[in-house]
Design a protein that fits this description.
heterodimer; A: 294 residues; alpha+beta; Helix Hairpins; HSP40/DNAj peptide-binding domain; 3 domains; three-stranded mixed beta sheet; 11 strands; 24% strand; elongated; B: 99 residues; Multidrug-efflux Transporter Regulator, Chain: A, Domain 2
Chain lengths: 294, 99
């Protein structure tokens, strides 16, 4: 558990007065506050550090304890014992100042002060902190709606992942964030989906794209082929004299449309005509003969 | 009985311990839409989360109303740009898979 120099975090000298600390905190908070940096995990981390430093340095009792024992925090146990006795008659309240709860403080802070307390602007019931989580899935996993159990902050949450969810999409699970402050409601859980594609299909929203090899003779003379769709196979009739790069549409054979039951995009097949290689002498002669007809 | 999802500005401000003028100013700056019930200004429940954020801007980060207005506009732009980046990344992934 490393020592944290809270003065350094706020960029103030050790003899800074309360006003200087407050000013430094507000300046840094305006830069790194999660409300001002949506989705920026670095800013969130930095803000937690700033908030923790402010929790300590802006309260005379905490600051005194920190100044005395900060560098030698292992000796803070004596303080903790005194604190425990004190807290029996004093209800702890969480800080409203940043929507963060006990779990958002460093081990160093927890060992010295036992959690966040004091410093609240008022007694209002604020929503708890919103949690962010990332879920990595394969494209195959999001072809059908399914349930999955996630562990967030030690709690198991069973969620339904709707078919057709997109890479980078965020879904909100209401009431699964941090606990509310002063009886405020719980925060929400935001899950960002990262979808990897290990299939041979390319996806653009609900449409799928695939390139299929076509031999020269089927391309020239036409015929029937079987292609893989995302969930099975489909028979296709290839028209005679099909050109390389021809694209055909298989209606409704694409990806499920997000939150639209039974609606599917289309599958686009692009033919890539493969010319024969390693020709025999007889084949060469026949192709030569053909070329003379043109 | 019809349920209206609103709370009076007075009740809201008492709960959050903030002056009513703050909410009325947010409304003047078109940052929050207020409803009127029997001529009393009310807040839509759906706006509470946004207002909580604006309370933090003002009372905890010391940002004045003009600042909040500018920040809100910029945050909306950031949100739109993040959506664009997400869509473009997906498009890029589409072409990268094709190569």
């Amino acid at each position: 558990m490393p020592f944290i120099d809270y003065y350094k975090v706020l960029g103030v000298p050790k003899d800074a007065d309360t006003q200087t600390i407050k000013k430094a905190y507000r300046k840094l908070a305006r830069k790194h506050h999660p409300d001002l940096n949506p989705g920026d995990l670095e800013a969130e981390k930095k803000f937690k550090e700033i908030n923790e430093a402010n929790e300590v340095l802006s309260h005379p009792e905490n600051r005194k304890k920190y100044d005395e024992y900060g560098k030698d925090w292992q000796h803070a146990d004596a303080y903790n014992q005194a604190k425990q006795q004190q807290s029996q008659s004093q209800q702890r309240q969480y800080s409203n100042s940043s929507q963060f709860n006990e779990g958002d403080f460093s081990d160093f802070f927890e060992s010295m002060f036992g959690g966040a307390y004091g410093g609240s602007r008022n007694q209002a019931g604020f929503r708890g902190q919103d949690y962010n989580a990332e879920l990595q899935l394969d494209l195959k996993d999001v072809y059908t709606s399914h349930k999955r159990t996630l562990t967030v902050n030690g709690k198991n949450i069973r969620i339904t992942i709707p078919a057709g969810i997109e890479n980078g999409q965020v879904i909100k699970i209401s009431g699964h964030g941090g606990p509310g402050v002063n009886n405020g409601p719980k925060g929400d859980l935001y899950i960002t989906f990262t979808i990897h594609n290990s299939t041979k299909f390319q996806r653009d929203k609900a449409n799928l794209y695939k390139t299929v090899d076509l031999d020269l003779y089927t391309a020239l003379l036409g015929g029937n082929i079987t292609v893989d769709t995302f969930d099975g196979k489909a028979k296709l009739t290839v028209k005679p004299e099909t050109q390389n790069g021809t694209r055909v549409k298989l209606k409704g054979k694409g990806f499920p449309v997000y939150k639209k039951a039974d609606a599917f995009g289309d599958l686009y097949i692009t033919y890539q005509v493969k010319t024969p290689t390693n020709l025999t002498e007889k084949e060469k002669a026949l192709f030569t003969e053909l070329s003379k007809l043109r | 009985m019809e349920t209206k999802n609103v709370i009076t500005v007075t009740e809201f401000c008492q709960h959050y311990n903030i002056p009513e003028q703050f909410i009325l100013s947010l409304n003047e700056y078109e940052l929050v839409e207020l409803a009127k019930e029997n001529n009393t200004p009310c807040i839509y429940i759906t706006e509470i989360q946004t207002i909580e954020k604006l309370i933090r801007f003002h009372f905890e980060l010391d940002i004045n109303m003009e600042g909040i207005h500018a920040i809100t506009n910029l945050l909306n732009k950031v949100e739109r740009l993040q959506e664009d980046v997400k869509a473009l990344n997906n498009k890029l992934m589409f072409y990268e898979q094709g190569t």
